[in-house]
Amino acid sequence: MEPGLSGTVRRYVTHAEAIALLSRLLPEIKATPVSAPPNPTYLAAPQNAPIPVTISTPPAIRRSAVPDPLIYHLPIPPHLTSSYTPTTHTATQLVFSLTATSGIYAHLSPLRHRHSILFLHRPWDLIRSSVPCGTLVLQSHVRFDELYTTGFNEAFARGHHVDVTTAVCLQGYKGDHERRIGLVGRVARGWRVDEYACLISDAFQGAETIQLHGGSDRHVEVLASLNAFTSEVVDRVVAAAADLGVRTTANIMILTGAAKGREDGMEAALQAGIAVVAVGHRRSEMWGLRYLASSATKKYAGKCEVVVVDEPDEEEERARQRDQAKRRRAEERLAEAQKVRKEKQKKRKKGNALEAAQHVVSEQVV
């Protein structure tokens, strides 16, 4: 381990080191603060403090037009911004979270010389006044979605037997024609479709929907990892697979996030005979968060603590509760309808029996 100035083992990382690491993991990102929101506690970046950035742009892929600044919140009071230098500010803890949940602030150290660096995927709910002084907050929304969920995720593909050297990049989403939305690549070995679906599900710690077609003897030759999932994107996947030499759609598997709200894509895949593993939106993001944290742990082993916060934000929790309440109401209505139907059937049988008895009596009288 690297010694400090006094000869003791260094137990911290500098802000510059953390910024450089995340800039490398999230290439094309701008290491400059975002524009100041209408918040009086926003800390502007000093003009005289250059921040080291490592940018790696694949030559075959053009830069996205969507800006994605890395620094979201600086660690010092506004009147001291001119003295901020990333090379001298340090942290003993790196915290990774998808959102600024109400519980995130308890994970940030308020102690002097034991500051934290917080990474957020969606930082907009951060209460800046609740962030301890000395905490640097970094963020990535667009680039994180592109590279570490179910889009152009080379890290996942490389670790799951996909040849990324020949993979096709799908681009174009939400008005940005250069935004990367997917990766289509050849699977290196012949996995059965059910085996490969289980492999993916295990990697994401579960799945929302698995849609397989045909028998288990089919093999996956192409994996398409997608952020956008429409019938038009499915057509592009089929074309990309053909470019890779695979023209049988039964040998293609699509990996995506949420299945809900993507019925068009699911139906197109069903009609084409393409297997789909939809792991769920949150699971796809948590995979990326754990990957960044794992990279930080390998890089700074013994120098600082790395924490992954897995807390659903309040909006997600409310949505989950609404869905549960909706399901309960639907089940209650169904149970009530079944009860009414049984009562009607019971009355009908009783009426039929009474009518039959009356008919027998009338015949006897005659």
Taken in chain order, the helices and strands follow as EHEEEEEHHEEHEEHEHEHEH
Global geometry: flat
How much is the average pLDDT?
81
Low-confidence stretches: 3-7, 34-65
Termini separation (Å)?
110 Å
Q: How many individual helices?
A: 8
The main pleated sheet reads as:
6 strands, mixed
Estimated structural class? alpha/beta
Helix content: 25-40%
Radius of gyration: 28 Å
Features of the shown structure:
disordered N terminus, single chain, 366 residues, alpha/beta, flat, Udp-n-acetylmuramoylalanyl-d-glutamate--2,6- Diaminopimelate Ligase, Chain: A, domain 1, six-stranded mixed β-sheet, five-stranded mixed β-sheet
Protein described:
With 366 residues, this protein is of the alpha/beta class. It folds into 3 domains: 13-144 and 285-311, no CATH class; 151-278, 3-Layer(aba) Sandwich (Udp-n-acetylmuramoylalanyl-d-glutamate--2,6- Diaminopimelate Ligase, Chain: A, domain 1), CATH 3.40.1390.30; 313-366. The protein has 8 helices and 13 strands. It has helices spanning 15-25, 142-148, 154-159, 193-203, 231-243, 263-272, 281-299, 314-365; strands at residues 13-14, 71-73, 90-91, 93-99, 116-122, 136-139, 168-173, 176-192, 209-211, 219-226, 252-256, 275-278, 305-309. The strands form 3 sheets. The protein has a 6-stranded mixed sheet with strand order 7-8-10-11-12-9. β10, α5 (231-243) and β11 (252-256) form a beta-alpha-beta unit. The radius of gyration is 28 Å and the shape is flat. Mean pLDDT is 81; it is low at 3-7 and 34-65.
